[in-house]
Amino acid sequence: QVQLVESGGGLVQAGGSLRLSCAASGGTFSSYAMGWFRQAPGKEREFVIGISWSGGSFDYADSVKGRFTISRDNAKNTVYLQMNYLKPEDTAVYYCAASTRGTYYFRTREADYWGQGTQVTVSS
C-alpha cells in the first residue's frame, strides 16, 4: 500500500507564495504519476496540476497556469507544489494523489492513492 502525507499548508496573504510537499512511502514512487487536487468548502474536489512518472509530461487546470508549478524528486519520494501569486479563491484543502495509469485520469478525479490533505488559506 502507498501512503501519501502532505505538508506545508498555512495562512498567506493574497499575492504571496507557499510550497506544499507530499511525501510517499510504501510503494515505488518513480512508477506513479503524481497530482494535486483541492476542495473548497461547499464545492467539489477539483484537479489542479499533475506530473507524469518520468517528469516529462504535465497537465494544468486553467485557473493555475502561470502561477502554480509541480515538480518531483524521485530520490526523496516527494512531489512539490509551488504556488505563487496566490488569490483568495485558491483557499481550499489541497490533496496529493498518485496514479498507476498516468495523468490522464486526473481530469476525472480518478487516482489510486490519496493523502489526507493540508489546508491553504489565502486572505484578502
What report would you give on this structure?
The protein is mainly β and 124 residues long. Helices cover 0% and strands 49% of the residues. The chain is built from no helices and eleven strands. The protein has strands at residues 3-7, 10-13, 18-25, 33-39, 46-51, 58-60, 68-73, 78-83, 92-99, 113-114, 118-123. The strands form two sheets. Strands 2, 4, 5, 6, 9, 10 and 11 form a seven-stranded mixed beta sheet that branches. A four-stranded antiparallel beta sheet has the order 1-3-8-7, with no helix packed on it. A hairpin with a 6-residue loop joins strand 4 (33-39) and strand 5 (46-51). The model has no long low-confidence stretch (mean pLDDT 95).
Q: What distinguishing features does this structure have?
A:
mainly beta, 11 strands, four-stranded antiparallel sheet, 124 residues
Brief synopsis:
The chain has 124 residues and is mostly beta strands.
Helix/strand layout:
Layout: E1 3-7, E2 10-13, E3 18-25, E4 33-39, E5 46-51, E6 58-60, E7 68-73, E8 78-83, E9 92-99, E10 113-114, E11 118-123
Parallel strand pairs: 2-11
Antiparallel strand pairs: 1-3, 3-8, 4-5, 4-9, 5-6, 7-8, 9-10, 9-11
